[in-house]
Write a structure and sequence with these properties.
The chain is built from twelve helices and 17 strands. It has helices at about 50-55, 80, 100-105, 110, 120-130, 150-160, 180-195, 205-210, 230-235, 235-240, 270-285, 325-335; strands at about 5-15, 20-35, 35-40, 65-70, 70, 85-90, 165-170, 195-200, 215-220, 220-225, 245-250, 255, 265-270, 285-290, 300-305, 310-315, 320-325. Helix 11 (about 270-285) links the parallel strand 13 and strand 14. Helix 5 packs antiparallel against helix 6.
Length: about 350
């Protein structure tokens, strides 16, 4: 049985304006386990950053308790807490005239103090952290001269070098391109697989539902906790999409736009991959797609493959319009609807 690392009991998030609560999130209880990668998901303003800041002791809770390895975290001295929890905020690191190596070395000061020299073991940990994020060639580069992706990797190296059982990051993939997003999540997954508890907030639902172990879904009336598949099956994802033109289609496993018109398209022939992505394009245009012939079909599309070439034929015989790409098929169907 995987042990409980963070135990949250009746926690009420928020902040006060004088004696009044300017913001208050409903009380909730949950746990985070060792080796678990958790994504905190919710709409803007619901309180994701507030939760992370509260768990990082940067902001007091309105009520409730948080236990780390069985101890109320408010009873932990600052240096001891810093040896248990590392928190990386959403704002990029800025450290003027500080190299990547010097920056990552700072992560060891909870163990040594600001005026005590690092020892050989500290330096080994720093080098291991830099190696883990693939930044061996960046040690002498200044933090402020790095790209967003490089800086994010340096911040993860800092968290690894701090060597805490809990790592929390607020929007670690924000502003990163797709390869860097997956690289950052890969690095965090590696840390979770080593036994650490990783909690990240994210707006990237593809990343959250494709790569993490557990979702903490923050809805206005409280948190829902489960595996990504549990959250999908519960129907709560569509509560996240309320008052938007998007909904989660359980059958396809995708977020799709609500379409006012529902036309029927029949797609026949072709390999499974080509049929899948043809269907994807037609669904985006507002068609319901079937794969067996029938009545009341607005668009009948035959896919033919020969010697590595693919053709899309609109209609029931070879004399109908033929296209050499999905794009051209869609352009033609759009022109018919105008």
């Amino acid at each position: 049985m995987v042990g409980i690392v963070i135990d949250i009991k009746n926690l009420v998030l928020g902040y006060r304006n004088g004696k009044q609560s300017a913001y208050r999130y409903p009380a909730f209880s949950t746990v985070a386990l060792g080796g678990e990668l958790i994504a905190l998901v919710g709409r803007n303003g619901v309180g994701k950053s507030t939760l992370l800041r509260t768990l990082a002791r940067l902001q007091p809770a309105l009520a409730g308790d948080v236990f780390i390895k069985g101890v109320n975290f408010n009873q932990l001295p600052g240096t001891e807490f810093a040896q248990l929890v590392s928190f990386i905020p959403s704002e990029p690191a800025h450290a003027a005239h500080t190299t990547v190596y010097e920056f990552v070395c700072m992560a060891r000061y909870p163990y040594r103090g600001w005026f005590e020299a690092l020892n050989d073991e500290d330096y080994r940990i720093v080098h291991r952290a830099i190696d883990a994020v693939g930044m061996q060639g960046f040690c002498s580069r200044f933090i402020d001269n790095l790209s967003d992706g490089e800086r994010q990797r340096a911040m993860i190296a800092f968290a690894i070098a701090q060597d805490t059982p809990i790592i929390m990051m607020d929007e670690p993939t924000a502003f990163l391109d797709m390869p860097n997003k997956f690289e950052v999540i890969r690095l965090l997954r590696e840390q979770a697989q080593s036994g650490k508890t990783i909690i990240i907030s994210t707006h990237d639902l593809q990343t959250a539902f494709g790569l993490v172990d557990t979702i903490w879904l923050m809805l206005p009336d409280g948190i829902r906790v489960g595996a990504p598949e549990d959250i999908m099956l519960s129907g709560n994802l569509n509560r996240l999409m309320e008052n938007t033109p998007v909904f989660f289609d359980l059958k396809s496993g995708q977020f799709v736009y609500k379409n006012q018109t529902k036309r029927l398209a029949c797609v026949l022939g072709g390999s499974s991959n080509i049929k899948k992505w043809t269907s994807h394009a037609l669904s985006r245009m507002g068609y319901d797609v079937v794969f067996t012939d029938g009545a009341n079909v607005s668009a009948y599309i035959q896919i033919q493959e020969h010697e590595g070439k693919v053709q899309w034929i609109l209609g029931r015989d070879d004399r109908n319009p033929t296209f050499d790409s999905i794009r051209n098929l869609c352009i033609y169907l759009k022109s018919l609807a105008e």
